[in-house]
Amino acid sequence: MISLKKYINLTKNVKNWPHYFYAKHIDGKQNPVVFRADNDIVIEVPRGNIMAIFKEIFMEDLYDIRFLKHHLKSDPVIVDIGANVGFFSLFMAAQMPGSKILAFEPLPANFGHLQRHFQLNADKGLICQNKAIAGTKGTVELYFNPDAGFTALASVHTAFDGSNTGRVEVEAVTLPDIFSQFGIGTLDLLKLDCEGAEYDILYRCPDPLLSRVKLIAMETHSGTGANENTRAMCRFLEQKGFMFKTGSNGFVWAWR
């Protein structure tokens, strides 16, 4: 049943969906695999571990698009923190053509492909920056697997996945910085997938500004502190006036 739903989503979300099977079973050398979604969105998916992220978003409906659409207006302002190569941003641009999307990705390799994606879809008004988002402005040191090329994992925690760990220092800005730079009045959707930085980002966000965030979709990751876990995050969000629901693998949706 899960596999069937996944392929039904593929046919709904990808206009040239037969190409997925062609690239998978017939032309295994095609790299990247190019897909097209609604709103004339073009997606280039490099082969390797990054294909799994494409599948999570476009086929497995990781972020529950029906739920997001239910809580969003037709022209939402969306901030994508931990954008990776841009699959979530592109998915939302395809699903909601009136969106204004700001995407932030700290790892240079990932950001290069994110930038490529936004250039391929230049008429959609997508904006990306090669920055980390943190609780305080300055620089942060991220740990990642340098052998992976594109990677879904980069963390503020040392050797977080037990792999060969590389380090990179990147510029960090805060959520208030984003509101200020882009003149955001109301942030309709805040998406976070930032491997442990979500606690610092939200816990340090001033209440008046956090009250202007209407919907949050994020993956939480267990950290070293007592308040760095899914339960603590949900308790925090409830105290700040959000309703919430949880899903598997630490997923949290919160809304006002």
Structural overview:
There is one protein chain. With 256 residues, the protein is α/β, with parallel strands linked by helices. It is 33% helix and 23% strand. It has one domain (2-255): Vaccinia Virus protein VP39 (Rossmann fold, 3-Layer(aba) Sandwich). The chain contains 10 helices and 13 strands. A 7-stranded mixed beta sheet has the order 5-4-3-10-11-13-12, sandwiched between helices. A 4-stranded mixed beta sheet has the order 6-9-7-8.
CATH class: Alpha Beta
Number of DSSP helical runs:
10
Helix content: 25-40%
- Named CATH topology: Rossmann fold
Taking all Cα atoms into account, the compactness measure Rg is: 18 Å
Shape category: globular
Number of domains: 1
| C-alpha end-to-end distance | 33 Å
Portion in beta strands = 15-25%
- Second-tier CATH architecture: 3-Layer(aba) Sandwich
- Order of strands side by side in the largest beta sheet? 5-4-3-10-11-13-12
Residue ranges: pLDDT <50 for 5 or more in a row? none
Record field, number of beta strands:
13
Let me know the CATH homologous superfamily: Vaccinia Virus protein VP39
Please trace the helix and strand order, writing H or E for each element. HHEEHHEHEHEEEEEHEHHEHEE
Supply the helix-strand structural class.
alpha/beta
What's the overall average pLDDT, rounded? 92
Main β-sheet: number of strands, strand sense, barrel status? 7 strands, mixed
Summarize the topology.
Layout: H1 2-13, H2 18-25, E1 33-37, E2 41-45, H3 51-58, H4 65-71, E3 77-81, H5 87-95, E4 100-104, H6 108-120, E5 127-129, E6 132-133, E7 138-144, E8 154-155, E9 166-173, H7 175-182, E10 189-192, H8 198-203, H9 207-210, E11 215-219, H10 230-239, E12 243-246, E13 251-255
